[in-house]
Amino acid sequence: MNIPEFLKILNETQKEEIEKTIHIEEQLKDRNIEYTHVLELLEKDSVGILKQNDNTFKLYYEDTDSKDMVIIISYRSEKLHLVTLFPHDIKRRVRHV
Fold this sequence. Notes:
By secondary structure, the protein is α+β, with helices and mostly antiparallel strands. The chain contains 3 helices and 5 strands; from the N terminus they run H-E-H-H-E-E-E-E. It has a single domain (about 5-90), classed as YaeB-like fold (2-Layer Sandwich). It has helices at about 5-10, 20-30, 35-45, and strands spanning about 20, 50-55, 55-60, 65-75, 80-90. The chain has a 5-stranded mixed beta sheet. The radius of gyration is 13 Å and the shape is globular. The mean pLDDT is about 90.
């Protein structure tokens, strides 16, 4: 699957229908992140996307003035699955020259 195909599926999927893994549940709790916040981010346009393997993609979303939220989503068994998420320093994405 390529990035445009993945984005089409992501845009056509109700965000509440994206499956949560046990791992993501633990991360939300450990990082004190509300699941509703993740859903709100997924409704926005991402600021970056990388293909990690055939069906797994790393998406970058602006979260705060200093942090992006990286959300990794895979597509398998005809469904999207949240794999992991973590805050990411915005300075690693944005370069001032």
